[in-house]
Predict the structure.
Amino acid sequence: MELEEFRLQYIDALRFDAEHDGSEPEVQFISKVLEHLEDMGEVNDPNPISFEIRGRRGRIMAFDAYAYDEADNALILIASEFSNNRESIPVLTNTRINEIVTRMENFIDESVNGHMEDYCDDSDEAIIISKEFRQKIGKSLMTSEILRFRFIIITDHILSKQVKSISQEDFIERPAEVQLWTIDRIFNSITSNSSEIIEFDTSEFGCEGVQFLKAEIGSECEYEAYLGIIPGYLLAQMYLKWGSKLLQGNVRAFLSARGKVNKGIRDTIINAPYNFFTYNNGIAIVARSIGFSEDGQRIVHFKDPQIINGGQTTASLANAIIKKEDKKGMDNLFVPMKLTVLNIDDELSEEQVDQYNSITKTISQCANSQNAVSDADFFSNHPFHVMMEKLSEKVLAPPVGGNPFQTTWFYERSRGKWEQPQMQLTVAERKKYCEKHPKSQVIKKEKLAKCFNSILMNPHQVCQSSAINFSKFASFIEELYQNSRDSINEEFFKKCVCSVIIFDTLDKLVGKASWYPKGGNKAQIVPYAIAKLFSLLPKDSDIDWHSIWQKQTLYPILADELSRIAYVAHQFLMEEANGGIVRTISRTPALWTKFKALPFKLSDNFVSSLISKEETKAVEASAKRAHKFNADIDAAVEIFNLGYDYWIGVYNELTANNILTYGDLTFIKSMAQYIKKGNLLTTAQCKRLVKIINKAEDKGYIMPR
């Protein structure tokens, strides 16, 4: 698909969605691009909220969404430049870019130094956001939660050829960056299998390169290893330019949750930078590839560097420059570096992406073993997602709303898996694809974590950033996977879908409620209300999950009860905030404990609609047994399909290498002969064969492909 065809389809889809939802195409555009930016890791939990306010002397203050990057200490403002022009592609000029950025800066400046109250009513949401910005930016860099600004322009325009580069001066004593997401950039990122990567020469930062020693780790390794000494100012400047995009995902989440900068790191930067190399444990980096100076003595080029340990060290160096704490300079500050190079230069296939993630995960786990980073933090690479993806392909939703066919709830294990297949389809084929896999039924990992964690009664976690909530949810899944893997089955998948239906339906109900103020706190009200309802269920009762699945919506009594509780949650959160920020207080376990204890009587009609808990357990037990049986059958078929020649070949290799005992070898040979006769192995035989093969692989044997 070419850019022009993509643009036309993109505009048409926006117009269709707008007509369907009763909104405007630009609203759909903002929503769609924000979702894409979140998938790309550019923003986290963006808040779509549009302002255009005229202040003194015609000064315009405007933006369309905002977000915080807690790992980066950044405030992100996003502005839309949307034409809805189907006939021709508009052009974004330097002049217009400057106007849009200035309007975003104006809002921040008025929030910090002005009086937004002069232009807005006290109830206006602009006042609330303005106060929030003022509180986070603070009066001093030393105490501020915001140490940098990022201004993002999203547009259906293309960039003018006159725009050669985009630079931005510091704003309110903090580094500021401008990002442009034009229609062609959106197109390129959607059609690519991978996110935009970081690639640079050290000379860009005035550095002649990084001293290193290559480690001789054997020819069988899939990567190369180096020990290096990286200048502190280079590391700081890298972070000032790219921020937490340098950090591997789990490290980013860890840094967000950790909060305060380590006092020891800060003190060394301020008082004894020359001792930093000795005092600091250093950083660990994984890169796709590197380049060397002509004499081979220094590393001068990095492609896709990801910091997998030492994120706090890196952020501290950058923050010291912002806060002007590096009074003695960084000329003599050096950081120990362990560098792993994977030597992957080409565009990554999906298989290579999985391999890349697996390698970085393993290295990261080991590198962070001394820190409070659990297995759950590496959950994005968990086999749970593969299982959910397979279940989403297999389990079809009942036809509803007059549709004559069943649909899927598409579990998007990795970014772009729903959109990318459509790129090669005709208009008619794409329509058919979307009928079977509706966009409204795409479930992202982070979305599932938010919805399921609500029914698990963890609303304070849901109100955290997506990364932190995802990590918390992972602990539940990891325990389930380890202790009861067969529980991750068709019924579990249906329950996951139902949790999404519950969350999204209540979100819409709250948004339309007469009591809900414009710019209210749906993101906090919804999880708190859902958690409250589940906490109130009698021990022997449960909601009717089967009804939700069959109808693909909430049954009226459940919807009414959730709406009642949502109103109570709204009142409670506003009272507890007492003019402060609901988003902040909602994240504490203490607030959930207090709301959980708040008296609330379930209606008699709702209680009478509940089903027996035993009924739910019986359905889940049956599904677990069925899944185990099917899994056993699948394993037997897979072993059978490999054939006699394959297994007798394994037997001969293992015999020649003298790896296993006589008993184990004899068993493999007998299974090969069993298969030759056309027989499927029993469950017990499969388990023993797999156990034997695992034993062989532990001793260094590699199974033939």
